[in-house]
Structures are given as structure tokens and as C-alpha cells.
Amino acid sequence: MISERHEELAALRALDLLDGAERAAFEAELADRADLRALAGQLRDSTAALALAAPAAEPPPSLRARVLAAAARETTVSSTPVVIRGPWLPRFGWGLAAVFALGSAWLATENLSLRRETENLRLERALADMSRQMAELRLKERSLVAEAAIADLGNRLRRQEDLSRLKINALASLAGNSPEARAIAVWDPDRETGLLSVEKLPALAADQDYQLWVIDPAYKDPVNGGVFTVADDGRAVLTFRPDQPVKTVAKFAVSRERKGGVPKAEGPIVLLSQ
Amino acid sequence: MSSACFALSFAEPGPAWLGLSAMTPPAENSPASDEAAEHAALVRRLQQGDRDALARLYDLLAKPLYSLALRITGDATEAQDIVHDTFLQLWRKSGDFDSSRGSVFSWTATFVRNRAIDRIRSRRRRQELLAGQTGLDPAAASANSADTLWLREKAAAVRAALATLAPEQKSALELAYFDGLTQQEIAERLNEPLGTIKARIRRGLLKLRDSLPGHL
Fold first, then answer.
1. Three-point CA angle A56, A59, A61, nearest 5°
2. What does the pLDDT profile of chain A (274 residues) look like in tens digits?
3. Is the CB of B79 less than 8 angstroms away from the CB of A79?
């Protein structure tokens, strides 16, 4: 029983419209079924007949001549054997040998010359490669130097920028017993940290500390900057960060307080920025 | 579609009408059998290097083959090249012909069609396909001789059979056979679903088979 599906496949096959997988599957079925093969053959013949439905056209007369001439040429080429005639060989044998010998000598000379030329070219290429490598190294060296210079310049610029950002305040003594006392406070407003360096500040009793105050107009009272003591020579260096955020520093002050400091200044102010 | 070559399959049996197939013997002494036999005999002579046989085959087959090539390519120069190549291949490969597997005309027509479709597909790829047909010379069909009489009769029979098809079936078959379009391309060209196209091809080809005469 031939189904419509089989008829469709046979028709598509006759017109070469089946793709690879579909065609392979149908061919496998054809191999097993004589009735399908018969149908496929009929449809193939019907398809071939379509060639005769093309509108009749006469090929130009010259085409016939071209075809026959081409066939004749192929016949001539294929049917003409290559024959070396015996009598010619002895007569020209020595001559041919001489020609071959000369030719071989010439080829050998050419070969030597070409080899030399090749070797020269190879050396030239090696030299060119070395020059290129050296140039690359020089370029790399210059590049490294330039990079270092740029990095150095950058660092310097950054340092300058840092320094320009810093606020430096000099503190002067307010206490009559230490008129020579001096202090410098360096303030970094971005980081809200600072450094205080003092000199010639009198030593304190054991139950006392100096306390640094940061005066910011945003606060009613000075903000605690930390406590410190001084060495025998009156020197001290304190890095500090105020207890509260400080946006604007109006002044720095140092007071003498109880040991450990106080939340709000109580003792006398000994140093005050100008 | 298979590419153009002479290694064609003629494995399936079929009616021998018009001398298109040699698997099923046609009616005895029918013109179809005479033509097919003459073609096969000429091909056998080609194997002996008989150039006169090639000339005779050319006279018998060149016109329908050229017409087919011209119908497909729409280009007279390309059609001439294809026919030229076809006869040269026939000359070179005549030993490959097996008369028990198909007629000389089927063999050569399939070669011409494959070559022509390869060309138009290549042309389409270059987006240089020209619309319409050119170079057809209706007057050429009026040539009358003993050699062309059989051809004219067969061609008339095929056209008559084609005329029995519904226009949409005929159109689908022609787009596949002469234009070398794929199923999908035919569906797009006719703006129809793929399933409809497959059904039209099936019905059209079956009807064509039934409408073609058993022999002339």
C-alpha cells in the first residue's frame, strides 16, 4: 500500500527536492519496496519528460562545428602516441649529451650562485633582525625612563597637592611661666587628622596632662584633640584626631588639665594658635 | 539537488513512452522504441571513437537539449556552453552509458538540467539573476525535418499533458524543474504554505504521469 506520504516523497525525489536526511530515509525505504521503486521510476520519467516542454529553440549552427571540432581535438591528442624514432637518437646522441652536459654545468653554476645569494640574504636578514631587536630594546629603555619620570612627577605633584591641602597653625604661649614655648599644629581637613609638635613646654606634675583642643565654630565648646605630656626638654609630638567630626578649624589651644584629660576645658590655656 | 555529472541513477523501472526509459520495453516497432534504440546505438559507436556518430547524435538531441538549457538559464550563451559541455562529456564518457538503466535522452537531459541549475544558482548567489526569459525564437520551432518530427510530436504530447494540470500544480512543477527552486523557495515565491506546495507537486506529478501517453 502506497500512502500519500510516499507519493509525496517520490514526487519530491523525482524533482531533486529532498534534502539529505529525508532523501536518505526514503532511499532506504525504496531499497526494501518494489512498489515504491516502481512509483519512483514512473515519476522520475514523468519529470524527465518536462525537458520537452521547454519552448523550442534552435542552437546556432556554429555550436555544432564547435562541438565536433573539440571532439576532434581530443581524439587527435589522445590517439597520437609519442614515438622516439630510433635512427635520430644515434645521430644526435653525442650532441644531446653535450647539450645536457653544458646545461648541467650551467645549472650547477646557477645553483651555487643562488646558494650564495641565499646565504647573503640570510645574513642580511639576521643583521636586520638584530638591529630591530636593539631598536626595540632602546625604545623599551626610553619608555621605562619616561615612565619613571612620569611617576616621579606624579608623586611630586601629589606631595605638593597634599602640602597645599594642609593647614599649618603656629601656637604661641599664653602662660607667663613659659614664654618661650612654641607649638605647630598641622591639620589635614580631608582626613580630619593632625599633628602637633611642641617645644619648651614646662614639665607637668604627675597628676596633670596637657590637653589639645580644636576650636570649630560649629560647636559651642572646643572639641577634645587628645592629651599629652612633654619630655624633660619640653618637647612632644602628638598625632591627633578630634573626638567629633571637625569641618572648620578656627584655632587650636592647649590647656593644662587633670591626668587623663577632661571632656570640657577646665584648666588654664597655655598655648593658643594665632 | 545532485550536482551535474554523468554518474546518474536509472535504477527505477518506468514506462518507455517517448523513449525516455529503456527499463520497460515500449510497444513493438513504436517510434519511441526506434528513437531510443538509435540513440543507444550511436552512443555505442561513440565508444569506438566514431565522430560521425557524435554528429548524428548532435543533430538528433542538440535542439531539445539547447531548448532545455535556454529555458532554464534564459541565456543563449550559457545554453550553448552547457550543450557544448554535454556533448563533449558524452564523447568522453560514452563508456559509462548503460542502456538498460535509461535512455540517452534522459541521461543527457538530466546532465543539461543539473548544469543549467548549477549556473542559475551560482548566478542567484551573485544576485545577478535577470528576470524573465530571453532568446526564445518561436520561429525556430517551425523547422521541419525527419529528425525533428519525432521531437515535435513528443514535445506536443508533454505540453498537452501539462495542460491538463491545474495552473497552480503546473506552476509548482515548473518552478522546481526549470527554475531549480527548493520547496521552501517555491512556497515563498507563490506565497503559500510549504505543505500546500508539497501537495501540489505530488498531485501534479501523479496527474502528469497519468496524462502522458504510454507510447507515441
1. 140
2. 888 999 999 999 989 898 888 888 898 888 888 899 889 888 888 888 888 888 888 999 999 999 999 888 876 544 444 444 444 445 566 777 777 788 888 888 778 778 877 888 888 888 888 888 888 888 888 778 877 877 887 787 777 776 777 888 888 887 666 778 888 998 888 888 899 999 888 888 889 999 999 999 999 999 999 999 998 888 998 889 999 999 888 899 999 999 999 999 898 888 988 7
3. no
Closest-CA distance of chain B to residue A45, Å: 7
Report yes or no: B212 and B17 within 8 Å, Cβ to Cβ. yes
Q: Give residue for cell 619630655.
A: A231
Residue type present at position A131: S
Q: What are phi and psi of A195, to 5 degrees?
A: -135, 130
Q: Give CA angle at B36 (B33, B42), nearest 5°.
A: 135
Provide CATH code, domain A167-273: 2.60.40
Which of B80, B155, B176 minimises the CB distance to A63?
A: B80
Q: Residue B164: inside a domain, yes or no?
A: no
Strand order in the sheet with A208-215: A223-228, A208-215, A251-258, A269-273, A167-173, A182-188, A193-199, A236-240
Beta-bridge partner residues of A223: A214
Q: What is the ipTM of this complex?
A: 0.73
| Structure confidence by residue, pLDDT tens digits, B20-61 | 543 333 444 444 567 778 888 899 898 888 989 999 999 999
Establish if B208 belongs to a structural domain. Answer: no
Cβ-based contacts of B202 with chain A (< 8 Å): 4, 7-8, 11-12
pTM of the model: 0.50
Tell the residue number behind the cell numbers 516497432, with chain if given: B29
| Domain ranges (residues) in chain A | 4-47, 109-165, 167-273
CATH number at residue B70: 1.10.1740.10
Residue-range definition of the domain harbouring residue B47: 17-138
User: How many domains in chain B?
Assistant: 1
Q: Which residues of A touch B152 (CB under 8 A)?
A: 56
Residues of A with CB under 8 A from a CB of B: 4, 7-8, 11-12, 14-17, 30, 37-38, 40-60, 63-64, 66-68, 70-72, 74-75, 79
B26 falls within a domain: yes
Q: How many CB atoms lie within 10 A of CB B202?
A: 22
Residue B119 placed within a domain: yes
